[in-house]
Amino acid sequence: MSVVFMIAALCAGLASGIVWLSLGGSALMAVAVYVLSGQLVLAALLGHAALRMFDEPA
């Protein structure tokens, strides 16, 4: 897995968790938001890369 994808997922997860805490959410839920949003970003980036890799001109 590319380091860029993992860094992007980490940054997105941290940003979402910090926003959750700043809006008054609980710390436990902030961890859940951090993990889930990071996984969603990672899945989106990997899916986009896979589509670009298999996109061959006709």
Describe the structure.
With 58 residues, this protein is an all-alpha fold. The chain has one domain. Helices cover 81% and strands 0% of the residues. It is built from two helices and no strands. Helix 1 (3-22) runs antiparallel to helix 2 (27-53). The longest helix has 27 residues, at 27-53. The chain is elongated.
How is the topology of this model organized?
Blueprint lengths: L2 H20 L4 H27 L5
Helix pairs in contact: 1-2
Mean pLDDT: 86
Helix and strand content put the structural class at mainly alpha
> Any idea how many domains?
1
Radius of gyration: 14 Å
What separation lies between the terminal Cα atoms? 28 Å
The portion of residues forming beta strands comes to: under 5%
How many helical elements?
Answer: 2
How many β strands by DSSP? 0
Largest sheet: none
Shape: elongated
Helical amount among residues, as a percent range? over 70%
Written as H for each helix and E for each strand, in order along the chain, the element string is HH
Low-pLDDT residue spans: none
